[in-house]
Amino acid sequence: MVNAFILVKVGTSEQLNAAKAAREAMLRVRGVKNVYGVFGRYDFVVFVETGGLEELSRIVLDNIRAIPGVLSTESLVIGY
């Protein structure tokens, strides 16, 4: 089992609900356990539980980064 925090930066949008829509989309991704809105360099911290690093990679690359408005991610794999 691999657990990780994914730091997510979203872009600005003409729609006021862009960040809310991105958060809701991330919560629907399989393996995502929670999404926290934060202040600072990143907009969200996403807690993910996966079966391994390959699955984590698919979640980040194929799902989270594909969400409209997501500009970048940084993965922090929990080591201990």
What features would you describe in this structure?
The protein is of the alpha+beta class and 80 residues long. The protein has a single domain (2-14, 22-77), classed as 2-Layer Sandwich (Alpha-Beta Plaits). The protein is built from two helices and four strands. Strands 2-3-1-4 form a four-stranded antiparallel beta sheet. The two termini are 12 Å apart.
Question: Helices and strands in order, then pairings?
Answer:
Blueprint (H helix, E strand, L loop, with lengths): L1 E9 L7 H10 L4 E6 L6 E7 L2 H12 L5 E8 L3
Antiparallel strand pairs: 1-3, 1-4, 2-3
Quick gist of this model?
This protein is of the alpha+beta class and 80 residues long. It has helices spanning 18-27, 53-64, and strands spanning 2-10, 32-37, 44-50, 70-77. The protein starts with a strand and ends with a strand.
Mean pLDDT: 93
In the CATH hierarchy, the architecture is 2-Layer Sandwich
* Helix proportion range: 25-40%
N to C succession of SSEs:
EHEEHE
Characteristics:
single chain; 80 residues; alpha+beta; Alpha-Beta Plaits; 28% helix
